[in-house]
């Protein structure tokens, strides 16, 4: 009769005659294969458990003209902060207009994008994309849009006085720089297509400021946050313009999440953004951005913009 072996500790293994089995008899080829397989599984599980978040694909965050191109050092500060807090790579994807960001978000080529009010409403309406976070500015998650004219224009006091003049638009998908002036003229019974002698797109709010400051345009609407930021960083530029009108408050340009962004990544990124204001390093980054912090945001803050887009036939 062959030996019967029980799986006891090595020192207690006995043969049928009560003699201790040698270690080599216990360690049969069959058992070697089984143990080796267990070791491989254990090593794989340990490797997966220890794999850092850095091994994951980077989170791709689109940046639009909300932050001027010459403030790339601020982008870098924000990227490093997010990477440190999330423990994974962040890739900023810069675009100089809103349309590419809209297309990339709707086709899941970005995870998140910081966009204007118009793109958010458009993306929410057409693709049901989620509002990730809204910046807080001067204590509130709102901003105003400014009508500016050259500083040497001392007489213009309203948009309607720019009839027959040259007007600069920011971007076809800009709330402040295109939708708002068209809507204001519509409400006044005017047609934006015939109201001005000439219009052109600068493809950026800072470029609107430059166009007006240089006299290339007689007026233009710009995002108030961007004009205020330029007034601090380039006061010699904004000094060549004059603010004629300020709009009411509107929801601040938000961060929007693509559908492919997992709920976990969505929650983690929102948590880090909201926590920036209470973190010493995060607070420094926010100060450089000219912001007070971030809040989850509320789609209702953008309802008025959605109404304007409906009236103008944009959605």
Query: Please, what is the average pLDDT?
Result: 87
How many helices does DSSP assign? 13
The residue fraction in helices comes out at 40-55%
Outline? globular
- How is the main sheet built? 6 strands, mixed
Distance between the termini: 86 Å
CATH architecture of the largest domain: 3-Layer(aba) Sandwich
Q: Helix/strand/pairing class, anyone?
A: alpha/beta
The unreliable regions are 1-13, 15-27, 46-51
Strand proportion, as a percent range, falls in 15-25%
CATH class of the largest domain equals Alpha Beta
Number of strands: 13
CATH topology of the largest domain: D-Maltodextrin-Binding Protein, domain 2
> If you compute it from the alpha carbons, what radius of gyration comes out, rounded to the nearest whole angstrom?
30 Å
H-E order:
HHEHEHEHEEEEHHEHEHHEEEHHEH
CATH superfamily of the largest domain: Periplasmic binding protein-like II
- The oligomeric status of these chains comes to single chain
In total, the number of domains comes to 3
* Biggest β-sheet: strands ordered side by side in the sheet: 2-1-3-12-4-13
Q: Can you describe what's shown?
A:
The chain is α/β, with parallel strands linked by helices. The chain has 3 domains: 10-50; 53-141 and 252-311, Periplasmic binding protein-like II (D-Maltodextrin-Binding Protein, domain 2); 145-247, D-Maltodextrin-Binding Protein, domain 2 (3-Layer(aba) Sandwich), CATH 3.40.190.10. Helices cover 43% and strands 17% of the residues. It is built from 13 helices and 13 strands. It has helices spanning 23-26, 29-50, 72-86, 98-106, 117-127, 175-187, 192-195, 205-214, 224-233, 235-238, 263-275, 280-289, 303-311, and strands at residues 59-63, 90-94, 112-114, 130-136, 142-143, 145-150, 166-169, 198-201, 219-223, 241-246, 250-251, 255-257, 293-295. The chain has a 6-stranded mixed beta sheet with strand order 2-1-3-12-4-13, covered by helices on one side. α3 runs antiparallel to α12 (280-289) and α5 (117-127) packs across α13 (303-311).
